Amino acid sequence: MISVNDFKTGLTITVEHDIFTVLDFQHVKPGKGAAFVRSKLKNLRNGNTVERTFRAGENVGRAHIDNREMQYLYASGDEFTFMDTETFDQFALSREQLKWELNFLLENMNIKILSYQGEILGINLPKSVDLKVVETEPSIKGNTAQGALKSAKVETGLSVQVPLFINEGDVLTVDTEDGRYISRAQS
Hints:
With 187 residues, this protein is mainly β. The chain has no helices and 16 strands.
């Protein structure tokens, strides 16, 4: 058990048989009435974000999440197969479990699998990945408007807003949190 007074961003907790990670919290001491903790929590089972208020000093369960190194092997229909890099055990996750992450997954990529008491909650991608541009409008010489962007489709199917100088075949570094262009990858 852990007191809500000890909340930290990134802490994983259990509340009413669900597993949450603390995204944000604020200790509030009103002039009248008891102190409380206002928090923003992300449900690790379904990805929903909820706001929840706890009384100061209230206890919640502490969830110990396992982070195991895995390798993405291949896709077969709506199932995506991963392998434990230590034990070589293989298992599959569904398209439903990997909605956002599929925009960044490439075969043979190493990632971390999040699990709680044997239940797989999802995957943890690296902060950024390098993806090859497969489709974009050609750059036009002399078109140098500052801040101008165009759409580029990368090898995973994700559409990214990129500067005008990006061409098909270029490799981009893309942020896995919001899918935005960071830079051209170094060759």
